[in-house]
Each structure stands twice: as structure tokens, then as C-alpha cells.
Amino acid sequence: MLGNKALARGLYEAGCMVISSYPGTPSTEITEEAAKYDDIYCEWAPNEKVALEVAHGASVGGRRSACAMKHVGLNVAADPLFTISYQGLNAGLVVCVADDPGMHSSQNEQDSRHYAMSAKIPMLEPSDSEESRIFAKKAYELSEKFNTPVLIKMCTRVSHSQSIVEPEERIVPEQVAYVKDPAKVMMTVNSRNAHVRVEKRTLDLIAYAEDCEFNRVEMSDTSLGIITSSTSYQYAKEVFGENASILKLGMVYPLPEKLILDFASKVDKVIVLEELDPFIENHCKQLGIKVSGKDIFPICGEFSQNLVKSCMGLDVPETLTLDENIPGRPPVMCAGCPHRGIFYILKKNKCMVYGDIGCYTLGAVAPLNSMDLNVCMGASCSGLHGFNLAMGREGEKHSVGVIGDSTFIHSGMTGITDISYNMTNSTVIILDNSITGMTGHQQNPTTGKNLRGEPAGKVDLESLCRALGFDRVRVVDPYDLDQVDQVLKEELEAEAPSIIISRRPCVMIKGTVHQPPISPNEEKCSGCKACMQIGCPAISVRDKKVKIDNTLCIGCKVCTQMCKFGALEG
User: Fold this and answer.
1) What ranges in 147-217 are assigned the alpha helix state H?
2) Among candidate residues 57, 34, 56, the one with its CA nearest the CA of residue 170
3) Fewer beta carbons within 10 Å, N or C terminal of the chain?
4) Are 245 and 216 in contact (CB under 8 A)?
């Protein structure tokens, strides 16, 4: 099974009844796979904060629950997480977070283990698919034993690799009765008392970690001892085999003390092998153990077997290479992507573009080069407001924020509310492609369908924006370049906050009807390459004549509007 699928299987086997999540690579498949079990209620929430609050509410109601998110999503969910740690639960609550070392699909490379320490809750870290399944089940036992949410930390390699899994039957515990408890209201004396309980719980968890089933020692050659976890454990086994002893940590917070000290005393040299921050290494040093770690291995990026060998001064096997210099293939927006026309017009008008998180971030790459920066979900709206506060009217006339429909629901609403309430003449473009695109086509509150594709409540973006204080709300077809250009100019000149909704379905949505491919007329083609300015992968120029790849072109006709010679015909 895929690691994420195995984790979902573990949640199922443990009797989880409610899962609320927000999609984010590499965590998305956890909830998608769980949704295949009819016995679990699964939903896409508007954002990770809401998802965790829903899951916690289900726990309070007496049912085992879970939520899943990527590492930056845990930032959003941190607010309820810290207080839930104080408040406690009724039934078990598991929070699945997937880190992305190497930033395959993320804007930063943060290490989620710090959240476990800060929120003072246990974190388990599986190293393969079978452990993902088992740890998910054991996490509920741990959660209910210590009255705490439990974090399960995945990473891209564990989430998206496959290994053998041995499924078991589902066992659903009895629903825990809800009992009113005024001490759960987190205020004044209740919160102070809760903090004392949490500190006591941490000490109990440290004692538990000393001989728990999640941590194990594999003694072999005692000249070298390796303390490790997650995929780094797999690399250690492959690189060193029987030439080293290994302390494999499955519970990475809280970390044991006696177990580590005892292991270190039995080997001549100790190395901590871990990706990203020196989390385990710092703990070992606090215990007074002389260890090597980040002085050998990098703090940035994803590890591999060969990287470990290279850092340790071992022979790295030769790899197959090609003599030919193959050009790079950076990611680009799909042929016919409705966002392409928007970014072309923004570049044409020399706009400062405050971007956001989604597949439209590719508007930053050549040849469009029309996104100036991005920060996090929803920052395009509130960040644009701040930019215009600093720049004044000249800034307002030449700057826009761009945000996807799912991202807008996630975090954009509060940002545009700040714009309308505090009255900068800011223009925000909502790129409504009727799906959550970057994470693999998940539904969201604007699509009218739920996670399973069934009919659901649908947010009306125009009405919502007007309700939030915008009198100027315009809808454009991003395939109509003249319309987009005209509306953009009008809204940038308007002395009022404004919203432009660019509405076209993602071309990759199943069932989307495409038009016939564009037919180039080589006799009319001057070889000017004006059509190449939009960066469509279906268009190329060979022998100074335009070519159309019929396997990619979906007949959007954006390129036909750029050719002054009529060489591109619909």
C-alpha cells in the first residue's frame, strides 16, 4: 500500500468515525483513501483550523476522529491544537501531518516536530506503510490513555512510497458518553490548572517512551551507533546493514532519556541521522551525549542512500548518465489553462502581482513572469492591502492580488474583508477554476459537491464578496483577452475596492468539453513568435513556422487573439 493509504487503513481499523481535512500535498490521499470506507464520515473543510475543530468536536461527542494536513497546514491548525492539548478529549483524536523535505510541492521546509514539543503532545513517526497502519491504530490507544491529541508525522517519501501491509479487521469502540465538565472551559484558573496537568502528562509520556513499542534498539557492530527515525532509518539500514547498531525512534516526542543514554553507552561513536532540524541531536546533547549530526549531514533538503554514503565518506556507486545535454523541463500550466490569459494581461499591463498558493503560482515562471511574490494561503489579499497602504494611489493603480477559489475560501475572505473595511482601492482577482487544482482535483465549498462528489452546499462568490463590502464585483472569461484587459484597466482606475472573478473550469476536470485543436496556417505565419508569449506547451515554432501539438491543444483560442496575421485559426 501507499503510505497514505496504509495510514487511512489504520484509522479505519481503529474505529475512527469522523475525518475532517483540507487537502495538501503530500497528505491529501490520507483523507481520499479513508473516504472509500463507507463506515467513516469524511469531509473537506474550508481550512485546517476548521478541520481540527471539527475533529475535536467529534472527539468531545465520544467518537474517535482524525484530521490530515501538510506541514504548512499545521500552522493554520496550531491555534486550536495548543488549547486542545490543555483541554483534553473524550474519545481519541489523531492529527496527521505530512512534511515535505526537499519542498517537492511546498513554499517552505519546516519541521513539524517542533509543534509537538511546543504544544506538548506526543508525536509518532512511521518509517514505512505497515508502520503507518499500525501507528494510526496505536495512536488512538495513546490518545485515550493520556487524554491528549496525538500527532502522526508523515513525510513525502513515506506518504508516497509503497511497502507490504497486513490489514486487520475494523474494531469500533463504544461511543463515549458526553459528560458536562465546566473545567474544560479554558479560562483563568481552569487554564492554569490544565497547564499543570499537561506538564505532568509530559513527564508520564517520557517515562512511557523509555520502553514503549514505538522505539526499538537493533544491536549489531558496536563501533558505530546510529539514532534515527522515519525514512532516515531506511537509509541507515541500506547503507550500514550489520555494520552499525541502530536506535530506531518511532515516538519522536517526547523523546526517551534512559533509553538513549543506555544505547549510547554501548557503542563507541554515536551519530544522529535525521532530516531537517537537529531535533533528536539537540536532545542527545542536552543529555550530555557526544554525538555527530548536522556537522556531517545537511540541515536542508531530502536525504537519500547516496547522500548518506557521501557524507560518511563511503564509496558512492556510479549512476547511469546520458551524454546528451537534455534541456530542463520546469513545470508549466497546462495547455488551455484558464489562468494563462489572466497572467498574460497582468504582464502586459505591468502590474505588481501579489500571488498566492496554488497551481497558478506557475504564473511566476517564464515566459509569463507575472507574479511578484507569494507567502501563504490568503496572503495575496491582506498583503496587497498592506502594499497599497504603503504605496498609496500609485500602488493601487498598478497592483493586484490573485487567489484561487479554494484558497479564497480557505483564507482569502478575511483578507478582502480587511480591504473593504479599511478602504484601500485594492483589486483582487479570484481565479475560479471550479476545483482545488494543485493537490489533485478535490472539491471545495464553491463547487457544489462534497468529498465523495455528491451534491452539497455551494458558496456564491459574487454574493459573498458583495456581502463582505464590495460594490464592484466583475466576472470575466479568461479566454477573452480583450474583456480581461478592459475590466482590469477599469478596476485599477476605480477609486473603490474591487473584485474580479475569472471564471473557467480547469481543463483537466473530468467531463470538461474541449474544442477542436487550433489549425495553424503556415503561409500566413511570419515567424514573429507573438503566440509564444503565453507559454502554452501546445505551441512551438520550428523552421520559423508555428506548430500546434494536437494531443495537447484544447482549442481555447487564446493564441488566436495574439496573432496579427491570422495564422492561427479556430
Assistant:
1) 156-159, 188-209
2) 34
3) C
4) no
> What is the four-CA torsion angle of 176, 182, 183, 184, rounded to 10 degrees?
50
Distance CA 458, CA 456 (A): 6
- Cell, residue 1: 500500500
Angle among Cα 463, 494, 396 to the nearest 5 degrees reads: 100
Note the pTM of the prediction, 2 decimals: 0.93
- With bands split at pLDDT 50, 70 and 90, how would you rate the model's confidence at 570? low
Does residue 255 contact residue 235 with C-beta atoms inside 8 Å? no
Residue 41 has pLDDT above 90, yes or no: yes
- Look at residues 319, 315, 303, 318 and name the one whose alpha carbon lies nearest to residue 271: 303
Are the CB atoms for 409 and 403 separated by under 8 Å? no
Query: What average pLDDT does the structure give for the chain?
Result: 95
Q: Using H for helix, E for strand and C for coil, what is the string for 461-525?
A: HHHHHHHCCCCEEEEECCCCHHHHHHHHHHHHHCCCCEEEEEECCCCCCCCCCCCCCCEECCCCC
> How much is the pLDDT for 460?
96
Residue 509 CB: number of other CB atoms within 10 A?
A: 13
Cross-strand bridge partners of residue 404: 431
Match 491529541 to its residue by C-alpha cell: 149
Q: Are 406 and 451 in contact (CB under 8 A)?
A: no
- Where helices occur in 247-399 by DSSP H, the ranges are 258-265, 279-286, 305-311, 339-348, 379-391, 393-396
Residue 21 contacts residue 99 (beta carbons within 8 Å): no
Q: Which amino acid is at 266?
A: K
Check: CB of residue 305 under 8 Å from CB of residue 238. yes
Q: Rg of the Cα trace of the chain?
A: 27
pLDDT digits 0-9 by tens, 259-294: 999 999 999 999 999 999 999 999 999 999 999 999
List, for residues 535-555, the tens digit of each pLDDT value.
Answer: 999 999 999 999 999 999 999
Strands (E), 56-183: 65-70, 93-99, 123-124, 150-155
Under 8 Å between Cβ of 266 and 280:
no
265 is written with which cell numbers? 553507552
**Residue 198 C-beta-side C-alpha neighbours within 13 Å:** 23
Closest CA to 141 of 128, 150, 133: 150
In this structure, are residues 145 and 92 in contact, taking their beta carbons and an 8 Å threshold? no
Assign 3-state DSSP to the chain and report helix, strand, coil percentages, each to 5: 40, 15, 45
Please tell me the predicted confidence (pLDDT) of residue 9.
Answer: 98
Q: How far apart are CA 132 and CA 134, in angstroms?
A: 6
Please tell me the distance from the alpha carbon of residue 100 to that of residue 159, in angstroms, as a whole number.
10
